[in-house]
Amino acid sequence: MTQTTASSTLKAHPVTVPAHPVWPEMSPEEKSATKNRIKALLKERNAVLVAHYYTDGDLQELAEETGGCVSDSLEMARFGTQQSADTLVVCGVRFMGETAKILNPEKHILMPDLNATCSLDEGCPADEFTAFCDQHPDHTVVVYANTSAKVKARADWVVTSGIALPIIQHLAECGEKIIWAPDKHLGRYVQKQTGAEMLFWNGSCVVHEEFKSVALERIKRLHPEAAVLVHPESPEEVIDQADVVGSTTTLINAVKEMDNKTFIVATDGGIFHKMKQLAPGKKLIEAPTAGEGATCESCAHCPWMGMNALQNLEQVLLTGNNEIQIDPAIREQAVKSIQKMLDFSSNMKK
Ligand code: SF4
Question: Which of 97, 99, 140, 294 would bridge 90 by S-S if both were Cys, CB 3.0 to 4.6 A apart?
């Protein structure tokens, strides 16, 4: 089967990466009082917290303690649709809030900070992407969940990293040619696994792109007993060294289920909270990001995920500000491509 790539000819769209936010330190008493006030506000607003694995551990705990959920973006989307609450408070990045609104138009969707975006979303502006798709009208358009509502509205399918492989496999078996956006690394990984004919948008995740293969080899030599877990948004040379490649949920399950006592993990460090909770005796090492020869433990943390904190979560619950709004015409289109993914996933489970 012919395999073509467009990303070598498409220029990457520039993305401005913010500094990692620094939140004022809270004493244990302050933290506990803030959490209690948030719990009361959630009840008052009939609101449920939905948090991603990459957010701060306090937010993850609070979501679990209050009947919300902590999960990957696929489960976050699904969980939201099953709630009777009037309001979903999404701790994560903007596309997650938008997906929640697209699937639950009758609910209020609040986010601690609406500026919490994502380099993949920002690197795929809807007008440029639409023009790219229009140049290839014979292709099925598949976009990663990390995109704006407008980009989803232009797509035939939305996928998350947890379900990208079976959906692309299915489309390849139907003989479809695919436009894939925005993450070129995940796209290449999926293409390698499925043999699908794919054109790639030239986007990447600023966190995963930083993992360094030479430094990873060195860390592996220092910890030969460790299993290497890699999220497929990482560069190909890093993926090639993995024992397990997969979504955040897949990587968490690997730590829980594999016999290894040590793991080198190439994804956002926020995931360690859940890994430690589920496998407390295991040693977790962040894969290196600090240059070719690095042997240090790195700081792979998404600056946009870091914009979620107890402080702005409380504010948003007090004020009702930061509500996600989506143009109804865009929503009507975007919901089709997301719903296809959810239906495909339900059928797989059956
Ligand atoms: S870790 Fe990467 S893909 Fe995830 S939200 Fe941050 S920039 Fe986007």
Answer: 97
Would you call 171 helix, strand, or coil by DSSP? helix
- Model pLDDT, residue 291: 54
CA gap 229, 7 in Å, rounded:
26
Phi and psi dihedrals of 145, rounded to 5?
-60, -25
Distance 19 CA to ligand 1 centre (A): 14
- Ligand 1 nearest-atom number relative to CA 233: 3
Cis bond leading into 125, ω under 30°? no
Which residues line ligand 1 at a C-beta cut-off of 6 Å? Answer: 54, 93, 118-120, 146, 205-207, 233, 268, 302, 304-305
- Record the tokens describing residue 239, joined without a space: 């993926």
* Candidate from 39-48, 95-104, 205-214 with smallest mean pLDDT: 205-214
Task: State pTM to two decimals.
Answer: 0.93
E runs forming strands in 18-148: 47-52, 69-71, 87-91, 108-110, 140-144
Alpha-carbon dihedral sign for residues 158, 183, 269, 32: negative
The answer to whether 152 touches 130, Cβ cutoff 8 Å, is no
Q: What pLDDT digit, counting tens, does each position of 304-320 carry? A: 999 999 999 999 999 99
Please choose from 208, 211, 251, 308 the residue to mutate so as to test ligand 1's pocket, defined by most ligand atoms within 8 A of CB: 208
Angle, helices 164-173 vs 328-349, to 10°: value is 90
Is 96:347 a contact under the CB 8 Å cutoff?
Answer: no
Q: Which atom of ligand 1 is nearest to the CA of 119?
A: 7
CA nearest ligand 1 atom 5, residue? 118
Rounded to whole angstroms, how far apart are CA atoms 90 and 76?
A: 9
Q: Which of 17, 132, 139, 62 is nearest to 309 (CA)?
A: 62
